[in-house]
Amino acid sequence: GNSVTQMEGPVxxxxxxxxxxxxxxxxxxxxxxxxxxxxxxxxxxxxxxxTKADDKGSNKGFEATxxxxxxxxxxxxGSVQVSDxxxxxxxxxxxPQYGNKLxxxxxxxxxVKS
Amino acid sequence: xxxxxxxxxHKVTEMGQEVTMRCQPILGHNTVFWYRQTMMQxxxxxxxxxxxxxxxxxxxxxxxFSAEMPDxxxxxxxxQPSEPRDxxxxxxxxxxxVQxxxxxxxxRLSIL
Lengths: 114, 112
Known about the structure:
The structure holds 2 protein chains of 2 kinds. Chain A has strands spanning 3-6, 11-14, 19-21, 23-26, 33-38, 44-50, 56-59, 62-65, 75-77, 86-95, 101-104, 108-113. By secondary structure, chain A is mainly beta. Chain B has strands spanning 5-7, 10-13, 19-24, 31-38, 42-50, 53-56, 65-71, 74-79, 88-95, 102-103, 107-111. In chain B, strand 5 (42-50) and strand 6 form a beta hairpin. The chains are: A mainly beta, B mainly beta. At the A-B interface, strand 6 and strand 11 of A face strand 5, strand 9 and strand 10 of B.
């Protein structure tokens, strides 16, 4: 079946460091790919998405490119802030015809120190 | 911004009691999802509905859990009887067709 694998955390960085969180997927067909972020005590929020190969999703300084050849969707940010500390989830759409049922990765904790 | 609203935000109760969690999806969304999040299992999909009809509830323990959508503005998740292993954060999310899901802030459930 479809699955998503994320790098294990926690990832601990200093403010202004470069961030990469790796995400690879296994899927049949051509799924859409998503990154969600969860701040403490809150629900998941959509961070960015890409719907086809070579698409780049971007938001709030974060970027991820849909790479079909490597089945990857790595999240990057050039300069992290303390406020970026959160849990990041990579996900793919499993069944677009059923309202985008999602398959989530395990999540990666990011801690940014000042 | 439109939001998914979940109530209650926190619930503490004793084992064996009935628990009801409620979700108000975003107006106009036709798909509703229930998730459970724990440290050990991560984020698990319990059930989901489209146009109020249940599509899949295979992630839910059928003997004690039930999910319904009495109308388009309300989804409920019930646990009867509750057990300590049900302690978790339960999230509701809603969506429309192929658009991304929007999540509520969750119900943090503790069963003593």
